[in-house]
C-alpha cells in the first residue's frame, strides 16, 4: 500500500462535508461517521491477503476465495477512535479489538499512556489503528510505538481527516505504516486543531463540550 491513500469516492466526500458543517447535530454526525467508516474500512482492507477454500454451492463444489491469516486487530485510540470502530466492526464482526488511552502531559505536552489493552498474538495479525483525526500525530505515533512493542509488524492507520503535519510526523516515525484518510486539510492551528477541519471529533460524536 502507498504511505498515504486519500479516499476520493463521492459518497465519502459528500458525507465528510456534512460532518464538517457546524449545524450538523450529534445524532447526524454519529450516523454519518458510522456510514463513512464502512466505506473507509473497505479501502483500508483492500489488499488483505487471500486464499481459497473448498465449498459446495447448491449446484457444485468449488474452490472459493476467502481472507487468509489470523483475525485482524482493530485498535481504537480513546475516545474518538470508538466512533470509527463501531462501523468497522459491522463490516468485520470477527475482528479482535484493542484500546489505547493517552493523555497529553501539560508540562511536556507529550502523550502519556493511561490505558492499553491489546489482543493476543499481535505479531501474527494485521492491526488497523483507528482515530478520526490525525492532527499533530503525537498520539498516533505513541499508539503505534506501543503496538510495535507488543510485537505487531503489520500495521495500518485509518482516520477521517489528516493534517499535513500529522502525515509528515507519521511518515518520519513510522514509514512502514500506511495511512488511509478521507481528506488531508490545509494545516493545524495554534491549538492543534485541523483547519478547516470539523472541530473536536470526540465532542461532536458524544455531544460534549
Ligand atoms: N482532534 C480533534 O478532534 N479535532 C482536531 O481538529 C484535532 C484533533
TrEMBL record:
<keyword id="KW-0460">Magnesium</keyword>
<dbReference type="InterPro" id="IPR050054">
    <property type="entry name" value="UPRTase/APRTase"/>
</dbReference>
<keyword id="KW-0808">Transferase</keyword>
<dbReference type="InterPro" id="IPR000836">
    <property type="entry name" value="PRTase_dom"/>
</dbReference>
<comment type="similarity">
    <text>Belongs to the UPRTase family.</text>
</comment>
<dbReference type="InterPro" id="IPR029057">
    <property type="entry name" value="PRTase-like"/>
</dbReference>
<feature type="binding site">
    <location>
        <position position="104"/>
    </location>
    <ligand>
        <name>5-phospho-alpha-D-ribose 1-diphosphate</name>
    </ligand>
</feature>
<feature type="binding site">
    <location>
        <position position="79"/>
    </location>
    <ligand>
        <name>5-phospho-alpha-D-ribose 1-diphosphate</name>
    </ligand>
</feature>
<comment type="function">
    <text>Catalyzes the conversion of uracil and 5-phospho-alpha-D-ribose 1-diphosphate (PRPP) to UMP and diphosphate.</text>
</comment>
<feature type="domain" description="Phosphoribosyltransferase">
    <location>
        <begin position="6"/>
        <end position="208"/>
    </location>
</feature>
<keyword id="KW-0342">GTP-binding</keyword>
<dbReference type="Pfam" id="PF14681">
    <property type="entry name" value="UPRTase"/>
</dbReference>
<keyword id="KW-0328">Glycosyltransferase</keyword>
<dbReference type="InterPro" id="IPR005765">
    <property type="entry name" value="UPRT"/>
</dbReference>
<feature type="binding site">
    <location>
        <begin position="131"/>
        <end position="139"/>
    </location>
    <ligand>
        <name>5-phospho-alpha-D-ribose 1-diphosphate</name>
    </ligand>
</feature>
<dbReference type="GO" id="GO:0004845">
    <property type="term" value="F:uracil phosphoribosyltransferase activity"/>
</dbReference>
<feature type="binding site">
    <location>
        <position position="194"/>
    </location>
    <ligand>
        <name>uracil</name>
    </ligand>
</feature>
<protein>
    <recommendedName>
        <fullName>Uracil phosphoribosyltransferase</fullName>
        <ecNumber>2.4.2.9</ecNumber>
    </recommendedName>
</protein>
<keyword id="KW-0547">Nucleotide-binding</keyword>
<dbReference type="InterPro" id="IPR034332">
    <property type="entry name" value="Upp_B"/>
</dbReference>
<keyword id="KW-0021">Allosteric enzyme</keyword>
<feature type="binding site">
    <location>
        <begin position="199"/>
        <end position="201"/>
    </location>
    <ligand>
        <name>uracil</name>
    </ligand>
</feature>
<comment type="pathway">
    <text>Pyrimidine metabolism; UMP biosynthesis via salvage pathway; UMP from uracil: step 1/1.</text>
</comment>
<feature type="binding site">
    <location>
        <position position="200"/>
    </location>
    <ligand>
        <name>5-phospho-alpha-D-ribose 1-diphosphate</name>
    </ligand>
</feature>
